[in-house]
Amino acid sequence: MDGQALARVLPPALEMGLRHIDTAQIYRNEAAVGDLVRASGLRRSDVFLTTKVWPANYGKRFDTSLDESLRHLGTDHVDLLLLHWPEGSDVPLADQVGALARAQDAGKARMIGVSNFDSARLAAAASLSDRPLATNQVEFHPFLDQRRIHAATRNAGMLLTAYCPLAVGRVFSEPLLAEIARETGRSIVQIVLRWVLEHEKMAALTRTSRADRLEQYRGLFNFTLGRDHMAAIATLGVRHERIVNPAGLTPIWDVPGPPQ
Ligand SMILES: NC(=O)c1ccc[n+]([C@@H]2O[C@H](COP(=O)([O-])OP(=O)(O)OC[C@H]3O[C@@H](n4cnc5c(N)ncnc54)[C@H](OP(=O)(O)O)[C@@H]3O)[C@@H](O)[C@H]2O)c1
Asked: How many Å lie between the centroid of ligand 1 and the Cα of residue 127?
């Protein structure tokens, strides 16, 4: 989201109580996020800031690039620091994980983790790390079967942070979701985000550039989906539609199917 969209949406989002902000070096909006968080008057400790290091910065530039991110964000630490993608760098994984640990030891990151890791790479990262990795941030929505990476992430003691939960808008044209929304008197956004949040050890990140859509997030925590609705939505995963798949950055993704 660019600075203009953020200026429209972030102040009212913070005002209504949203606290988890996900940015990345590559989004080029860390400075806008930093300015708007400061202008909100909230204490730094009331906001949960995540940023991600771009693969080109995994080597010698890791520490400098993190310092730049912190300067842009106007803070001395982030709450969560992630490796953005597992490919796109020649730096060995041990050194990437070591750089995360160094950032944590320097007080620049409260928690550390990864993004877009497949099961094999996740196991390797966890075994190379001398401390817990908090999360694996991956694409997760009803049209993609991510049962295997979810199980691997959970089994590694980590939280799965779901990105693109609305399948960048595709959920709005799915009749099954519209039907469940109608039956339960909820919106499609609420049904889908609730479906994500009801998975074990899972958080959700979503996005809107429209302040008038922020109200759609209200009431997410005052209802639950029944087992039948959870199972019905899960059947859509058979389509296995992966949306974010940039050449040169992706691992060999986990294949669809139940956890082995
Ligand atoms: N780690 C990674 O590699 C990675 C990759 C992708 C994303 N992410 C993170 O995950 C966040 C969320 O993912 P995302 O933004 O790609 O996907 P998303 O949450 O699945 O979808 C966002 C899209 O849905 C639209 N939308 C929201 N509410 C709507 C409504 N009521 N009716 C119609 N359209 C609606 C938004 O459009 P409007 O703006 O018009 O509302 C926006 O285009 C990103 O902002 C980013 O922080 C991380």
From this structure: 32
The predicted pLDDT at position 77 comes to: 98
pTM (whole model) above 0.90: yes
Residue 32: count other Cβ atoms within 10 Å of its Cβ: 21
58 among known catalytic residues: no
Could you report the per-residue pLDDT of 165-197, keeping only the tens digit for each?
999 999 999 999 999 999 999 999 999 999 999
Beta carbons within 8 Å of 41's beta carbon, 6+ residues apart:
none
> Which residue's C-alpha comes closest to atom 15 of ligand 1?
207
Q: Stretch 139-161: mean pLDDT, rounded?
A: 98
Task: Tell me if residue 235 falls in helix, strand or coil.
Answer: helix
Class of domain 3-239: alpha beta
Q: How far is the CA of 115 from the centre of ligand 1 (A)?
A: 16
Strand order of the sheet with strand 202-204? 20-22, 48-53, 78-83, 109-115, 135-139, 159-163, 202-204
Ligand 1 centre and the CA of 213: distance in Å?
Answer: 12
Question: Taking a C-beta distance cutoff of 8 angstroms, is the pair 72, 34 a contact?
Answer: yes
Taking the domains of the chain in order of start, what are their residue ranges?
3-239
Distance set, CA 123 to CA 111, 119, 152, 211 (Å): 18, 6, 8, 40
53: confidence class by pLDDT, cuts 50, 70, 90 = very high
User: Atom 12 (ligand 1): residue with closest C-alpha?
Assistant: 206
Burial 41-60 (b: 16+ CB within 10 A, else e): eeeeeebebbbbbbbebbee
The residue contributing the CA closest to ligand 1 atom 41 is 208
